[in-house]
Amino acid sequence: MNGDEDLTAEERRALSGLASGPEPPPALEEAVVSRLSERGLIAGRARSRPRPILAWALAAAAGIALFAAGLAVGQRRGAPAAEAAPAVSATRYVLLLYDAPGEATITDAEMAARVDEYRNWAIGLRRSGSDISGEKLASRNLDLGASSAASGPEPLGGFFIFSAKDPADALAIARSCPHLKHGGRAELRPIEET
Question: What is the pTM of this model?
Fold first, then answer.
């Protein structure tokens, strides 16, 4: 493995400066060689005849190899997060889904098929680059007492939160939601940054 290929010009200059600089203190050299030997990264050396230059070269090579491996792992871990990050200028929206008038009478199988349809819609939007998530809400409300808000003519059945580059894009996403074709009502609201 040639670690020099992954080094920047500044790192190459610093590495070549190490070769012409002073030798590391014997205690540091001994500690590095001991730890590398314990981990099986280098063979232990004979105590009777120390070779400071060889030990220094092995320690430098191990350091370069570990540095290059760390860079490779960091690049591999960082790539998916960079691809998945939503655009900075995108606004987040909530799409509130109110049940259709006859929704309470559909069968469990019909509801499962409808949930799958919504899930596939969201997956399609994700594949096209949208940042979207959502949930189906339980059909019952928890009693908040006197401060409880009235539920309105149709209960809130679920929601999606997504990012869109502008209001027109948000409206297009909301209008493509399968909920509307099933007779449900939807409300689209921008989420204010806090």
Answer: 0.52
